[in-house]
């Protein structure tokens, strides 16, 4: 029957992807959803609340903080995605996924704290994120060089 054939095809396609990539894929999708439904919506909410009309990027401090968080997340995500998937492809997908999940959690705490005036010492949440990205990138380079030299 047609329905069974379609579901088998999707399942077969998933099996073609190494299962160690599933966690990094889930982590990346969660980060995109957080960005869209938390960070971007926070900017819209503050725009409406404080009557900051597009394309303005200045105004009430609560709007500026929400806008800055959203921009900072947008700046960090490409580097994060590249380093996480490079690590997954060259080192270990499970390790990349776990490190990626920690990155997402720390970035979420950073963003919430920045918008909420928490006195958490936001550097405690940004420095580990930079270290995670650097570790995933450096380990990818080392793995590639090691395998190239040893080949």
Elements, N to C (H/E): HHHHH
Largest sheet: none
Percent strand equals: under 5%
Mean pLDDT: 90
Uncertain residue ranges? none
Model description:
With 151 residues, this protein is mainly α. The longest helix is centred in the middle third of the chain and has 30 residues. It contains five helices and no strands. The model has no long low-confidence stretch (mean pLDDT 90). It starts with a helix and ends with a helix. Helix 4 runs antiparallel to helix 5.
Describe the protein's topology:
Elements: H1 2-15, H2 22-50, H3 61-90, H4 93-116, H5 123-150
Helix pairs in contact: 2-3, 2-4, 3-4, 3-5, 4-5
Keywords:
single chain; 151 residues; mainly alpha; 5 helices; 0% strand
Question: How would you briefly describe this protein structure?
Answer:
The protein has helices at 2-15, 22-50, 61-90, 93-116, 123-150. It has 151 residues and is mainly α.
């Amino acid at each position: 029957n047609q329905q069974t054939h379609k579901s088998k095809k999707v399942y077969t396609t998933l099996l073609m992807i190494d299962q160690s990539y599933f966690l990094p894929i889930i982590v990346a999708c969660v980060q995109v959803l957080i960005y869209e439904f938390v960070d971007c919506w926070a900017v819209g909410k503050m725009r409406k609340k404080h009557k900051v009309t597009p394309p303005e990027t200045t105004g009430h401090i609560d709007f500026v903080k929400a806008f800055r968080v959203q921009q900072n997340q947008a700046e960090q995500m490409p580097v994060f995605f590249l380093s996480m998937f490079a690590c997954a492809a060259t080192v270990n997908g499970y390790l990349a996924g776990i490190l990626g999940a920690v990155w997402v959690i720390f970035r979420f705490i950073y963003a919430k704290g920045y918008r909420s005036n928490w006195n958490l010492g936001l550097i405690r949440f940004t420095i580990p994120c930079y270290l995670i990205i650097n570790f995933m990138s450096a380990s990818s380079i080392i793995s590639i060089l090691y395998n190239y030299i040893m080949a």
